[in-house]
Amino acid sequence: MKLSIYIFALAAAVSATGCKKKGCTDPTALNYSESAKKDDGSCSYSTTYAVPTTYNFTNGAGNSTVNYSGQTDRLNQLRELMVYVKSGKDGAIVAQNMDDMFVNTGGNGGGNFSFTSTKQLKDKCFSLDQTLIENYFDSVALASISFASAASNGQAGTLTTGASEYLFSANGVEYAQLIEKITMGAVFQYQALNVYFGDSKMNVDNTTAVDPANGLYYTTMQHHWDEAFGYFGVPVDFPTTPATDLWGKYSNSQDAALSSNAVMMDNFLKGRAAIDNLNLEDRDVAIANIREMWEKIAAYQAMVYLDQAIASFGTDNAKFLHVTSEAYAFIYCLRYAPVETRNMTTQEVADVIAAFGDNFWELSIQDLNAIKASIDAKY
After folding, report:
1. CB count, 10 Å around CB of 200?
2. Minimal CA–CA distance to 196: which of 237, 231, 146?
3. Element (H, E) at 14
4. Helix and strand tally (H, E) in the chain?
5. Which of 119, 208, 243, 334 is packed most tightly, with the most Cβ within 10 A?
6. CA pair distance 336, 230, nearest whole angstrom
7. Neighbours of 82 (CB within 10 A)
8. Mean pLDDT, 10 residues at a time, over the chain (379 residues)?
9. d(CA 184, CA 193)
10. How is 115-140 classified by DSSP, letter by letter?
11. What are the E-state strand segments in 230-343?
């Protein structure tokens, strides 16, 4: 089937002094407060607040103000969906079951989830890519019919490398990787960076608890920030407790190159503490830092997989097709970086995706090096 193209440990208090008048050279200084601005336009930094070392925030009475249960449900839905998708290497799977899990038919994915929930993946998915993912369900189901065959150019089936076995389509695509990574982008990354960090979700009430009588002690703004954090999908004490899958896994994978674990977690903590202390400038700095790093994680991970594809080219077809599929999907995720911070336009991402062609079996070393050069030039 032709590929579709739709294209940050701070327990101590944080404080600073500085200015915001003409000539100020420290735009990233923390704790600026509009209420502290002087008549001449300069300012003093009088706000001091603590930033916790774990994602635990409470009100003055000690009640937790954190809630991102809906995001946890969706992460678990993708996890269980992927168990089913990847079972296609062992036997034929059904597209309708994946459709039911995507839309959460009956609150239990048509009987395919081990838990019930009112949440779903599809209605939070970037609208232009909902059909794309559903088409991938059809493609992986079709490939799974040939699970007992050895994959080759024009023949769907499975291939093994080391202890790992993968299912490929007739054009050499491991659709399981596209489904997982593009859903991570189209739902989790898109919702966190564009929706919950967007003006409509951040320019909201931050003075009144939503419903304390029923245990909802958070303000609307606090809750929206928590929901963005929930989509990152890491433990509250990350990276002390590592993440084992989804975006947290790949943040950890790129930590040596990017210090991504600290950048992501520290900024999620700093931004939430800033909201709690009515410091929206600090919040906005944290948003920009998270947006930039999330995009870099995807780009750097794609480059790792492209390097692995080149290294395995012509010697290990299973490894080559597997990592090429992963590279494709992470490059596709660059589309979900917000326009305010993104390094590649939608068209530039589309051009790189197009360079993969319709058949991964027919990619050359020159093709892969050209794709690498396009990513490297931007990141």
Report:
1. 9
2. 231
3. strand 13-14
4. 14, 4
5. 334
6. 17
7. 18
8. 37 31 32 38 53 97 98 98 98 98 98 98 98 98 98 98 98 98 98 98 97 97 98 98 97 98 98 97 97 98 98 98 98 96 96 98 98 97
9. 12
10. S--S--SGGGS-GGGHHHHHHHHHHH
11. none
Q: Are 340 and 306 in contact (CB under 8 A)?
A: no
User: Global pTM?
Assistant: 0.88
Element of type H or E holding 324: helix 317-332
216: which DSSP letter? B
DSSP-based three-state secondary structure for 54: coil
Backbone angles phi, psi at 196, to 5 degrees: -70, -25
181: its two tokens:
């990574």
Look-up: residue for tokens 């794609």?
302
Per the CB < 8 A criterion, the answer to whether 182 and 129 are in contact is yes
Residue with tokens 């499975």: 158
How far is CA 75 from its chain centroid?
11
Q: Which residues have a Cβ under 8 Å from the Cβ of 152 and sit 6 or more positions away?
A: 361
Token duo for residue 234:
């890491």
